[in-house]
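User: DUF6570 domain-containing protein, Rotaria socialis:
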Amino acid sequence: MSMDSLAESVCGICNIRRYKRELRHVPLSEIPSIELLKIHPDLHNIIPKIQEINSFNSNDSNVQSSTNNQSFTCINGMFFYEAGLYKTVDRKKRSLIHCDVCMECWSALAKEKIPKFSATNKVWMGDIPKQLQGLTIPEQKLTALYRHNSCIVKLQSPFHSTSTAQSALKGNCISFPQDVINITTTLPLELDDLCDSLKIIFVGSRMPQRSQLKHILTVRKKKIYDALQWLNQNNPLYRYITIN
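Assistant: Predicted structure for DUF6570 domain-containing protein:
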């Protein structure tokens, strides 16, 4: 199987990642029943900074001025995810917008139905704040209010020698519930508390190198501090938490 056949992309309507071979790459004007993608009125006051592109075939400068830093955009009142949109220029120097559409969304629109996982159907959770992106497992544990589960992470190297192994480890994580006794009032957690809810098991002839673990088990002080600051300012559950 070639690498091209494994290439992935995102549906511009439901934001679900698919194999590219399973997506239709079409101009917006060719999407059936596209008027069904108009954003639901209930979301207008919830989704921040919606920007509109005035027309499907607007000139290049208009398209560029409508580009935003969000993961979504609103075109003629219809909601699309930026990751599934592609802006090109035709021979007449008109800007065209193409969209990757998964089979489920295409089938629904072809039947004049609202796609199940589209924002039009009020399925929208918002972007993950930058401060909360990329948290490792221990960082998530250190910033969590409730320790409702424990994790056992099993890691193994595909080769006996780390010098010939790939730069990543494979494994699985087992999570099981535990009794919630106390609600945290001070964060981040103490090291002893972290050790109670997170266990690491290495399988192999020798211990892995630190460089192999940095993307899995690393703890960054600034990342934790920024995450807690954001949660303290934006999440009412963290409002009375003391950042230690």
